[in-house]
Design a protein that fits this description.
heterotrimer, A: 223 residues, mainly alpha, Cytochrome Bc1 Complex, Chain D, domain 2, two-stranded antiparallel sheet, 41% helix, B: 469 residues, Four Helix Bundle (Hemerythrin (Met), subunit A)
């Protein structure tokens, strides 16, 4: 049937019968016909490469040379050189931008209090329309600085949970910005929180653990 | 022409070559097709979970974070590698004009390779991943695959050594280079000696090179063969082939760190990878011009030859995905699309629309020659093509647009992060639809494949239809 | 192949791979190995390291990065994910978990941003209980249903539908360690050059 393998050791392997019909003259015919309509093995033509291929290649190489010069940085293991200078992230040059209350809320508070300040029923109290927010600005500032734990009544509903202290994460002006945002969003309209108030309360409440609703009530909203 | 060269051009000689490589080729291709079905199922599960997170939520083995890497590993090391190896075995024998050597080693290689993929994927699903993208398989599984690869490389290099062809056709350059490159890369990257940021660099040196020096050479070697073969005219220009191959070899190796742009990686390192990515324009342009000038005037053959239809689709997507990659590596683009679903779309344009489509096309050519049987159902082949082509197009467009919007939203700090997540939902559903179409196409293809293997289905007479004049 | 002799082809092929390795792995490897750990960085505790293994096992890295980008490059700074991270922040990470996808937010400083263990337990047990629009998987196998909690053991605030027949849901050892790892994720110390 098929030519024997004569030019090297090793048996001729025929297709195993598991593949249905075994080798037969008819199968052989089909194979022949498949091969006969096949074209020659591919060859390589000798056309020259179009001139513009070379031109584009040279142009790209040239541009990348310039790119390397501009953005290569120093050959040091320093990241972020382009944005922050040759000292990278160790540089102190990058001034902190003015804090944006909405951004801070989206970055931090939103994980519990949700977009829209709605909170989650039975878990995290709402900020929209919350009487604790609307009271004296000193109350929310204290909660942010030191955290809050235990039962608390908000808008007529009971919440039992723990809010961690955010004081170490935020600068005074950032706390002022985010609370000003909270106090003037979603229907709240209790006005701005001055940075000086945060600075003053941070000093006064240093070392204070998490607040409870009772302790805050004892202060009576008068710092 | 000497009489020996003439003998090497006869039908009898080709018949003999194909018969000799038939069993190893079919073993690899059949394994590849089975892994393709597994990989598709895993991919579709992962995709659906991104918009229906409570579906199958209580089965630890099917949580997103395990299914997603299992999908990648199965399609990369199972489907693309095994089907690719099957095609390369046949191709090497044809191009060296000598029967394939070390067939026993090839069968052992296929057995080990399947074992490695099964073990590795099982390990990922059951929680024993190494935790590094593209390198999830635990070391024993990786070692098994490395041995399997070396056995395969041994067979290819022995065949190459015994070649009777006088001229070394361009496809062969890619095959030989990749069987030398990949085992070195795979072993070096799997060494358990890296940590911190250096590990990240090794990770992406490997991750991108798996494409650069293994998957892309498979696709290009097959495209360089199938296009002139089906059309029946020489590849346009030897000089373009040369420019394409050596610039490819030189630049592609340096691309990996574009996966870490903006990260805690030395600036110079990011910059050289960006530069190398842009320089990929040169080899891609050379290959694209070479293929286009060969095909020009013969586009009507796309209608009659499934091989050419799949292969030309794949070759065009190679050009597209490479140019996209060059543009995507730039810092301004990375700032938006890094970390988004856009990158996932890009990856599938490469591994699916380019590589897998060329693998399908090549298999439509190779399988009749190794089974001595004609494809029974042209209509089903057309169905496979359109499901795959439309599926990947929908997939790519959904993730490209959705990913870009996701990146723009993510870079705007006033947009709460949950809104960024919620905004991708519609696009992710479209992606699931596209992915399911691809999966359906694979079922059609697998059905056809196993019909061929059993020589079943309607018999097509002597009338040639596949690559008719 | 342009080369006159075949060995030159093989030499060329090996040379390009080696060159790429030198550029992307060898040279940076030498540079980075000489860098000390950042002074504010602590090695993982045994418990955190175990939690990190759970993080790897569940494939968190496929949706969460652990790297923060500099000002002027993306929104990381505006989102307050932390100062730009540097190589010295990662010296104890093996394997690295920088990640390439932000289907979820960056976690490099999640311990500083969300220090509440209670929140993490509720979130891991059912992310949609605390973030309704979340698409994160639940991880019920990191928790168990018990008649009553042991003294000092954390209890997950879960609705009754998850507690058929009453009882309480408490994290397993794996759940506790994963949360310890997450709460320890804090690279907010200042960078030393």
């Amino acid at each position: 049937m098929k030519p024997e393998n004569t030019d090297r050791p090793g048996e001729h392997w025929s297709l195993p019968p598991l593949l249905g019909e075994t080798d037969s003259p008819e199968i052989h015919e089909i194979h022949r016909s498949i091969l006969q309509r096949e074209r020659l093995e591919p060859q390589e033509g000798a056309e020259p490469a179009p001139w513009w291929v070379w031109a584009v290649s040279v142009a790209v190489l040239f541009c990348m040379g310039i790119y390397l010069g501009r953005y290569g940085g120093s050959f040091k293991p320093v990241a972020h050189e382009l944005e922050m200078g040759s000292a990278g992230a160790a540089s102190t040059a990058s001034a902190r931008p003015a804090p944006n209350g909405a951004d801070i809320f989206s970055a931090i508070c939103i994980t519990c209090h949700q977009a829209g300040g709605t909170g989650i029923e039975g878990k995290y109290p709402p900020l929209a329309g919350s009487e604790w927010i609307a009271k004296d600005a000193g109350i929310p500032v204290r909660i942010v600085l030191n955290g809050l734990e235990g039962p608390i009544q908000v808008k007529g509903k009971q919440f039992v949970n723990q809010m961690p202290s955010i004081g170490a994460q935020l600068e005074d002006d950032e706390i002022a910005a985010v609370l000003s945002f909270v106090r003037s969003s979603w229907g709240n309209s209790s006005g701005k929180v001055p940075t000086e108030l945060v600075t003053k309360l941070r000093r006064e409440t240093a070392g204070q653990g998490a607040w409870t609703a009772d302790k805050l009530n004892a202060i009576g909203g008068k710092p | 022409m000497t009489s020996i060269t003439k003998e090497l051009e006869t039908v009898e000689f080709r018949e003999r070559l194909d018969a000799e490589s038939a069993i190893p080729v079919l073993v690899f291709l059949a394994s590849g097709v089975l892994w393709l079905l597994v990989g598709s199922a895993l991919g579709i599960i992962a995709s659906i979970k991104l918009h229906a997170p409570d579906w199958l939520a209580t089965i630890p083995q099917l949580t997103f974070g395990r299914v997603r890497p299992a999908h990648l590993d199965v399609v990369a090391y199972g489907w693309a590698s095994l089907a690719g190896v099957g095609c390369l075995i046949w191709l090497t024998s044809r191009l060296c004009k000598t029967p394939i050597r070390q067939r026993g080693a090839l069968i052992a290689s296929a057995a080990l390779w399947n074992l490695g993929v099964l073990y590795g994927t099982g390990a990922v699903l059951f929680g024993y991943s190494q935790g590094v993208e593209w390198l999830e398989y635990p070391l024993p599984a990786a070692a098994i695959i490395a041995v399997a690869f070396l056995l395969f490389a041994w067979s290819i290099l022995s065949t190459f050594h015994a070649r009777q062809a006088e001229h070394l056709y361009v496809s062969l350059w890619y095959v030989i280079a990749s069987v030398v490159w990949f085992p070195i890369l795979f072993v070096v990257a799997n060494l358990p000696i890296y940590s911190g940021v250096e590990h990240a660099a090794v990770n992406w040196w490997y991750g991108h090179n798996a494409l650069a020096i293994w998957f892309t050479p498979i696709g290009l070697a097959l495209a360089y063969y199938m296009i002139p073969k089906v059309i029946g005219r020489p590849i346009y220009s030897y000089y373009l082939s040369l420019l394409g191959f050596w610039s490819f070899a030189l630049f592609y190796n340096w691309n990996g760190i574009h996966h870490l742009v903006g990260g805690p990686v030395p600036t110079w390192l990011q910059t050289i990878s960006i530069i190398a990515s842009v320089l990929m324009v040169i080899p891609v342009m050379a290959v694209a011009v070479n293929h286009h000038m060969t095909t020009i005037g013969h586009f009507k053959l796309l209608r009659t030859s499934p091989t050419l239809r799949f292969t030309v689709f794949g070759a065009m997507c190679y050009t597209a995905v490479s140019f996209q990659g060059s543009a995507e590596a730039l810092r301004n683009t990375q700032e938006v699309v890094h970390f988004t679903h856009y990158t996932v779309g890009h990856a599938h344009l490469g591994v699916y629309a380019f590589l897998s489509m060329i693998l399908f096309g090549s298999m439509y050519y190779i399988i009749p020659r190794v089974t001595a049987w004609d494809w029974p159902r042209p209509g089903a082949i057309r169905l496979h093509f359109w499901l795959a082509a439309l599926g990947i197009s929908l997939y790519f467009l959904a993730l490209t647009i959705g990913g870009w919007l996701q990146g723009m939203a993510m870079n705007n700090p006033a947009e709460p992060f949950v809104n960024v997540v919620a905004g991708t939902r519609g696009w992710l559903i479209l992606r699931s639809i596209g992915g399911s179409m691809m999966g359906l196409g694979h079922l059609v293809f697998a059905f056809l494949f196993f019909e061929m293997l059993w020589r079943a289905g309607p018999r097509r007479g002597a009338s040639p239809w596949e690559d008719a004049k | 192949m342009i080369f006159i002799r075949l060995w030159m082809f093989f030499a060329g092929v090996l040379a390009v791979l080696f060159l790429g390795w030198v550029g992307l792995v060898g040279a940076p490897g030498v540079q980075l190995a000489a860098l000390p750990a950042q002074t504010g960085l602590r090695p993982y505790t045994y418990q955190q390291e175990h939690g990190r293994q759970i993080y790897i096992r569940e494939g968190c890295v496929y949706c969460h990065t652990q790297q923060t980008r500099p000002p002027g490059f993306g929104g990381d700074q505006g989102r307050r994910w932390g100062r730009p991270s540097v190589p010295g922040d990662y010296v104890f990470d093996q394997p690295h978990l920088l990640g390439t996808s932000r289907t979820g937010p960056d976690l490099l400083n999640i311990g500083a941003r969300q220090p509440s263990a209670e929140w993490h337990y509720a979130h891991l047990f059912n992310p949609r209980a605390v973030v309704p629009q979340s698409i994160m998987p639940r991880f019920p196998w990191l928790f168990e249903l018990k008649a009553a909690a042991d003294p000092g053991e954390p209890v997950v605030d879960a609705p009754a539908e998850f507690r058929p027949g009453g009882g309480v849901i408490t994290p397993t050892r794996e759940g506790v360690d994963l949360v310890e790892y997450l709460r320890g994720m804090d690279r907010t110390y200042p960078v030393k050059p």
